[in-house]
Design goal:
Blueprint (H helix, E strand, L loop, with lengths): L2 H11 L3 E3 L3 E4 L7 E7 L2 E8 L7 E8 L2 H28 L12 H11 L5 E3 L8 E6 L5 E6 L5 E2 L7 H27 L9 H8 L1
Parallel strand pairs: 6-7
Antiparallel strand pairs: 1-2, 2-3, 3-4, 4-5, 7-8, 8-9
């Protein structure tokens, strides 16, 4: 991937992004903080630009990349995740209020109902005995402690979360499962269109759902 391509792909998705040959940045309303990548010497620097009612924007450096390709992929995954979280995940939570996603009534049966309603069951593993490739694992350790993990295509359990209580675990299990399904769908489109030549890495999937 390159930065010009990333700006085009994000803009086509509805996430307006501009690249002028030196800097790629997301376009947001006035006084909104935004992310940008600029080339400095032989490196590409990812900044969060803080502009909230300040006369001089403050650049907070987040990461440094040694190639345009690695910078472009990171920026694409990072900004697409934020965009999809707002466009799809938050919207669905608001619309499907009968499921009380993230609320006190949201339990395991409602989590499964939400996943079935979206037809994304293949991306969810309910316990280690039901492990599926490319899924989010919800692991009930004991009566009070839970963990969620990413399971890759080789059935390896990666990116294990810290101990979570039931409410947080069920909520993150839903949001991560939904995000995983969205990126898998987008990945297929990009491969079919020739925009990318290989699937996203495990690390890029983990970055997207984090």
């Amino acid at each position: 991937m390159n930065l010009e391509q990333v700006a085009r792909l994000l803009t086509d998705e509805g996430k307006e992004t501009r690249y002028n040959g030196e800097i790629i940045k997301e376009i947001l309303p006035p006084y909104s903080n935004y992310h940008e990548i600029c080339k400095v010497g032989d490196n590409w620097i990812l900044n969060l630009v803080v502009v909230d009612h300040q006369n001089t924007p403050v650049h907070q450096q987040i990461a440094t990349f040694t190639s345009e390709d690695s910078a472009a992929i990171y920026f694409y995954i990072n900004r697409l995740s934020s965009f999809y979280s707002k466009k799809y995940v938050r919207k669905l939570i608001q619309e499907q209020n009968d499921l009380d996603i993230g609320g006190e009534l949201f339990d395991l049966p409602l989590l499964i109902a939400a996943i079935e309603r979206l037809k994304i069951e293949k991306f969810f593993s309910n316990g280690v005995i039901n492990l599926k490739p490319m899924s989010i694992l919800l692991n009930n350790i004991n009566e009070t402690d839970w963990k969620i993990c990413f399971v890759n295509s080789n059935m390896q359990i990666l990116d294990e979360s810290q101990i979570l209580d039931r409410m947080d675990a069920l909520f993150y299990a839903f949001t991560n499962t939904y995000l995983l399904s969205l990126l898998q769908s987008r990945e297929k489109e990009l491969l079919d269109q020739g925009e990318i030549t290989e699937p996203f890495s495990d690390g890029e999937y983990i970055q997207f759902i984090a």
